[in-house]
Here is the input.
Amino acid sequence: MKVGVVVFPGSNCDRDMFHVLTDVFHLDAQYYWHDKGLPENIDAVILPGGFSYGDRLRAGVIAAHSPVIKDVQKMSEKGIPILGVCNGFQILVESGLLPGVLLKNDSLNFMCEWTDLVVENNKTPFTNQFELNQKIPIPIANGEGKYFADDETLKSLQKNNQIVFRYSDVVNGSSNRIAGVCNEDGNVVGMMPHPERAVESEINPVDNKPSSLIFESLLEKMGVKN
Amino acid sequence: MSLESQELDELKSKIGRDPTSTELQIVAAEWSEHCSYKSSKRHLKMLPMTGPLVITEKGYDSGVLDVGDGYVVTAHIESHNHPSAVEPYGGAATGVGGVIRDILSTGTRPIALFDGLRFGDIEKDKQAKWLFKNAVRGISAYGNCLGIPTIGGEVEFDECYKNYALVDVAAVGFGKKENLIKNHAQKGDVVVLLGGATGRDGIGGSQFASDSLESEDRSAIQIPDPFIEKLIIEAILEARNQKLIHAMKDLGGGGLSCAVSETADSLGIGIEMDVTKVHTRESDMHPDEIMISESQERMLIVTNLEKLEKLKIICEKFNIQCSVIGHVTFDSLMHVKNGENTIAKISTDIVTNATLLDLPSKKPAYLETIENEKEFPLLDNYSETLSKLLSSPNIASKIWVYGQYDHEVGIRTVVKPGVDASVLRLDNGKFLSVKIDGNPKHCYINPREGAIGCFEEACRNVVCTGAKPIGMLDHLQFGNPKDTEIFWTFLESLKGLTDFAKDFEIPCIGGKVSLYNETPLGSIKPTPVIGVLGLIDDTPMISQKISENDCLVILGDTKNELGGSEYFEYIHKFIGGKCPVVNFVDSKKNMTSVLEIIQNKLAKSVHDCSKGGLAVAVSELCMTNNVGCSVSLDKVPGESLSIDKILFSESHSRYLLTIDKNKLDNVTTTLEKNNVSFEIIGNFGGNSISFSNDSKPVIDLLVDKTQKTWLSSLEELVMHA
Here is the structure.
């Protein structure tokens, strides 16, 4: 199966994600520069983290207008699994593919720390290998990571089972401790924490198995035996 | 902003005529202390700079070490003190940007940043607090945006930095040996300026940094743009992969003047350039301004016309500007034109080689008495003293600082910040351990021994991770070199570092001298900052969780060396006493023994004992592991001392080893065999940090409560106090 890693000017977790996809999970990954379209034959798309356009105006807002986003949207409509991590999540939100917005953290600071996530929806292509409420030790690294949605949106997220991950503790002031959401169909998932930084035991001081399940879920979804 | 009168006479006699205004600006920038190292250069030669792993190439601004299997590590250290003291956010950010481009110039990808920050007393001084807060934000904004992890550093506060700031940034790069840029130039080669537009920022920055800080010359401050820097990094590395670069240099101090003249001089060529070809931010810039602007995020590249076309395609992809500003000649002249008119034509040798000074030095009078001893009456219990130290700005956890830095991006960070040295994994299966250390309090009391101590402490930290030191970066920061007493302290520090480097066979692979670090209030204390790189061939020492009944072993003697200690200075407000001295023989034996214990997997954790002494080092172990420990001070090896001295002496070459009871015999056998001084001084367990002397309690603190204040006190002080 073929996974496209979209690279925007200022993306900086693209190489980390590529390494995890290819060297850890032995997937056929390919970089796609933001100013071109995506080929028809890719099976999943990942928007990695970073500072697209230097976070100018607002994180993700300029990249959301990149030519590639039209194709990402088409693919989302076709039900192809799409994952946005950190800045990738911000871009998905800014392009309207996911609900809500991401604001400055309550501390008003950039925050880099390890935290625990709780899996709230184990039906998505990136969470199907988890038990509900399973914990994931994982690092966050962002300045604008506080998820916000109005009460109505929050209600519908809850009702449609669109909340995928919550922080175990209050980390940055996110509404209902939300760390990741999906679209109504469940194939587009966005999350602020960085799974690509947590899947190798060498750099994960806690436990690398839970984060690995995010990628193993994708393999399962695509029917690939690893 | 101009040459001194004897320098002007010298320039006139060298070129046999009056210089043009442009030549004057170019030479003033290049002959500034900042660019020419005229006061220090003749002395820096004493440092050993070669070794089996050191790779040297002409025109490199950073050091290169061969780490095997076809890979290299590059490293450099820079400071941005004057700008940061005026505009801390931009000053610190552009400091990061500059050192990263030095790494990039060799053709390697920057993979880690380290920063050493020093300010005045933030407990009393609001300006120091403002400088600190914003310097941290500047580093965070720049490094995070680039996706280069900031994985280590140090923060220190001292009255001597009042109204001032030291912002030191070290960067490490990694790449394939075959991809190193071998700087050269051929007939027909063109000179390209790539990156951000040249504007009116940083005008005369290098001269600004070569004088004491008396005014806020804001036009001398550079403006950061990390987004452009990120694009430059990716564009340059793509150009490197396509082998499009003949020679490369970053634009830093002295701007184009420095980059053009130094590139030409190092390659033995001439360069003819036209200022009207430089892409500028403003339309009405004077040619002289263009030549000395220190606008950031710019690289100078020498390539040929065929490769230029491919380079342009890469620049288009990343939407960054590149201008052909000139071409290579073979007359060894720096020829600057403004359209058709020649505005400077001068030998590169004259521009780049300022006459080196041989400044006089004299031992400072204060040093005659500063090491005199002073005794303080003993207290009934030292719980309060330790508690006060653990929440003091210099000793409290720096989590508020490194929590704002992305220290995970790049997925190499095996040992994270907040412990001894940080460790990165490399692509060849080896690991790189890096630490930077400074100690102005020790260096003020004894410039030579203090500098050696910084060097040894950085080595100790690296050794704690199981790494063997393979290279050193030195950053020598002092006041006005024309003050004979200050210059003496510079020379003493340098001699000390040289002796240690030679004895331990650790080559100096790069460095920087920063002088004129003073304000109308006076000079800073001597502040050498030493970075040490260590290599781990197989597995790094990863601390295991300490559990009940593990034993605490101390390696190394505790001596009556409290001069410059946090205990004397922070608790007793006393500057003086004997500064810690490194015994080279013991230091080496201890390092070898620690490495042997780590290699044989006999320790659960290894921790350095330094600032705040034994009491603080033990507390750090307890607080990071949420476990108590009982230590018997009467068992601590070394000189016979009063309990406060045992607790707080900052003697070097000491390590704390946490040992599982079952491995204790193995450890003691190894240490006895190596004939090193050690004792089992404590047991882990319970929930309090306790010290006793002959069974009489001396300190008793609850771990959880102490940990809370240790973690939060710096943030409290900066954000809320």
